[in-house]
Amino acid sequence: MTKYIFVTGGVTSSLGKGIIAASLAKLLQSRGLKVTIQKFDPYINVDPGTLNPYEHGECFVTEDGAETDLDLGHYERFLNIFTSQANNVTTGRIYQTVINQEREGAYLGKTVQVIPHITDEIKRRMLLIGDTGQYDIVITEIGGTVGDIESLPFVEAVRQLQWEMEKEDCLVIHLTLIPYLKAAKELKTKPTQHSVKLLSENGVHPDIIACRTERPLNLDIRKKIALFCNVKTEAVIEVMDANSIYEVPLKMLQEGLDVIVLKKLHINGYSAPQLGKWKDFLDKLKYPSGKVTIGLIGKYIELQDAYKSILESFVHAGAMNECKVQVVNVHSEFITEENVEEKLGGFDGLLVAPGFGIRGVEGKIIAVQYARINKLPFFGICLGMQMAAIEFARNVLNLKDAHSTEMDPGTNNPVIDLMEEQKKVTSKGGTMRLGAYPCELKPATLAHDIYGHSPISERHRHRWEFNNAYLEPFEQAGMIASGKNPGTGLVEIIELQNHPFFIGVQYHPELKSTVENPQPIFVSFIKAAKEFAEKKVSVKNPLLQSEMI
Ligand code: GLN
To answer: Are strands 378-381 and 349-352 parallel, antiparallel or unpaired?
Structure first.
C-alpha cells in the first residue's frame, strides 16, 4: 500500500522544496523504503522544454525523453534512481489531457470545470506512480507558493486526497521562511503563520512545518510556531542554511524529520538509516586534498541554475578525486582571439557547455582552439562537442567556412547538420532527439578507457549531429569518432589523438551523475585537470624544475 507525502511552499519561492523533498526521500530510502518523488508545476507550458534557461534554469531530461523541471535532477542525484515523464506534470499537461478528452466527447453533455474535471485529472496523475505498486512512499512536490492563483487547483487536489485517504496514508509538509530581523534581533514567525492560514483556508492542514532559517530555532519559537500552526512542537522542523545541498539529509536526520514522517504514516519495522556511502562522499567533499579550476564556457552564466547538472556533476567528480573543483564561469560571447590567453590562461581544464542558437558560438570555438593547442584538458558537451568539430574543421582541415547549419544554413561545409528526420519537424515542443540512446565505444580509445565497457547508454537533447560525410578526413587528421550509435552510425563521441584529454560528446552525461554514481567522464576530466595543474606547478617551480632534470 503506497503512502503519499505532499510538500507545499509558503511565503516566498526558492526556499528549496526540491532539496527538502529529496533529503526526506533519501532518509526514507536509507531506512530500506522504496521512495520516489514527483513534481507538479503550476505553469501553462506543457513541459519546460520550450522555456529559455533564463526563465526556468536547466531543462532536465529523463531516460524516457521527458523534458522536465530541474528538481528532477536533484531527485535522481540524491536517490540514485531514474525518474520519468510521469514524475513531472504541469498545469499545461493537465489541461491538454482534459481538453483532448473533451474534444473526443468524453464529457458529452457536461460542462467541463476546474472542479471536478481538472482536479480529477490532477489527482489521477498524483496517484499514477503509486498505483504501479513499486513504491512504499511517493513524495509530491507542489511547485509555486501557496496563495498563487495558478497553484490553487493543485492545493485543492491535495485537499481532496487528504479527505479521501486514511489519515495515516497521506501527510502534508509545508516549507516556509522564518526571517531574522536584524534591527529587532529576532526571528519572525508571522509570515509562516499567514502562510499556514492561507493553506488552511484552502482546506489543507499541514502535518509538519519545515522552517527555512538563517538562525537556529529555539524551543520557544518552535512552540510558538506549533501553537499558531496547529501542529505538534516536534513537527516543527528547523531547516538551516547548509554549505552544501548534500548536507541537508543529515541535518534533517538530526531534526528527526524521517522519524516524524514514519510515525505519522504508521510505518513500522524500518531499519536504522544506512548512510555510510553518503557520509563518505560528504567527508571527501569537506576535506579535499587538492584543487582544480575549471573554466565553464557558456552563455547563460548569469544564472547558475542554467547549468545545474553540470555543476553538480563537478561536485560528485571532485569528491571522487578528493579534490575541490572551482568552476569559473566565462561568458563565451566575450572571448576573442586577443583576450583568450588572459581569459583562459589560468584554468586546469575547459568545459564548453551545451546551448542553442548563434550567440556566443565564435567564443566557444576560440576556447576549443585554445584547449587543443595548449593541451589543456577539454570536455565539450552537446553544442560544446559540435563547436569542437567546427574548430577542427576550420583550423586543422582548413575548411574555413565550416559551421553548423543551425548557425549558418548556407555553409559550404556543414560539419554539423540537421538529422534527416529532424528536417520534417516543424513543431518545437518535445521534438528534439530526446532521452537515452545506446552508444558503442571503440576499443583502445579515451572514451573506452573512461567507461571501461561498451555499449553505454546516455541521454540526449539536440537536433543537430556530426555530419558523417566529414568523418574520414577528421579521423585521418587525428580527431576520431570513439563512440557511435550502433543502429544509425551517428557519431556520439569525438576525441583528439595526441592530446592528454580532449573529448566531446553529443549527449548530456551530466544528466546521469549521482552522489553514489559519479559520471565517469567528469571523474576522468577532473583527474586530467589535476594532472595538468600538478605539471603546471612543477614547471613554474624552479626547485622542482631542477629535480625534473
Ligand atoms: N543546438 C544544438 C542542437 O540542437 C545543441 C543542443 C545542446 O547543446 N543541447 O543540436
So the answer is: parallel
Q: How far apart are CA 351 and CA 363, in angstroms?
A: 13
Give the pLDDT score at 350.
98
Q: C-alpha cell of 489?
A: 552510425
Residue 465: closest CA among 498, 490, 429, 497: 490
- Give the Å distance between the CA of 222 and the centre of ligand 1: 49
pLDDT of amino acid 426: 77
Pairing of strands 35-41, 137-142: parallel
CA 336 to chain centre: 30
Residues 6+ apart with CB under 8 A from 34: 134, 135, 136, 137
By most ligand atoms within 8 Å of CB, the mutation choice from 382, 404, 418, 459 for ligand 1 is 382
Q: What is the pLDDT of residue 548?
A: 44
Catalytic residue among 174, 382, 406, 465: 382
Q: Which of 221-225, 297-301, 459-463, 542-546 has the lowest mean pLDDT?
A: 542-546
Grade residue 427 by pLDDT with cuts at 50, 70 and 90. confident
Residue whose CA lies nearest to ligand 1 atom number 1: 356
Which amino acid would we find at residue 388? A
- Kindly give the distance from the C-alpha atom of residue 463 to the centroid of ligand 1, in angstroms, as a whole number: 6
From edge to edge, which strands make up the β-sheet containing 464-466?
A: 403-404, 414-418, 464-466
Give the DSSP letter string of 233-256: GGGEEEEE--SSGGGHHHHHHHHT
Enumerate residues lining ligand 1, CB below 6 A. Answer: 354-356, 382-383, 406, 461-464
SS (H, E, C) 189-243: CHHHHHHHHHHHHCCCCCCEEEEEECCCCCHHHHHHHHHHHCCCHHHEEEEECCC
Q: Is 3 helix (H, G, I), strand (E, B) or coil?
A: strand
- 78-82, 281-285, 431-435: which has the minimum mean pLDDT? 431-435
- Average pLDDT of the residues in 516-530: 97
- The pTM of the full predicted model, rounded to 2 decimals, is 0.93
pLDDT category at 146 given cuts 50, 70, 90 is very high
**Cα of 102 to ligand 1 centre, how many Å?**
36
Best residue among 297, 463, 491 to mutate for probing ligand 1's pocket (most ligand atoms within 8 Å of CB) is 463
Helix 71-79 vs helix 17-30: crossing angle, to nearest 10: 20
Query: Are 28 and 258 a contacting pair, CB within 8 Å?
Result: yes
Instruction: Report which residue type is found at 262.
Output: L
CA of 322 to the centre of ligand 1 (A): 32
Closest CA to 295 of 264, 334, 268: 334
The per-residue pLDDT of the chain, averaged, comes to 94
Nearest alpha carbon to residue 327 among 338, 340, 343, 311? 311
Cell 503509486 appears where? 130
Q: Residue 529 CA to chain centroid, in angstroms?
A: 23
Which amino acid belongs to residue 199? L
pLDDT in tens, 77-100: 999 999 999 999 999 999 999 999
Mutate to test the pocket of ligand 1, among 309, 310, 464 (most ligand atoms within 8 A of CB): 464
| 508 annotated active-site | yes
Residue 317, all three cell numbers = 567528480
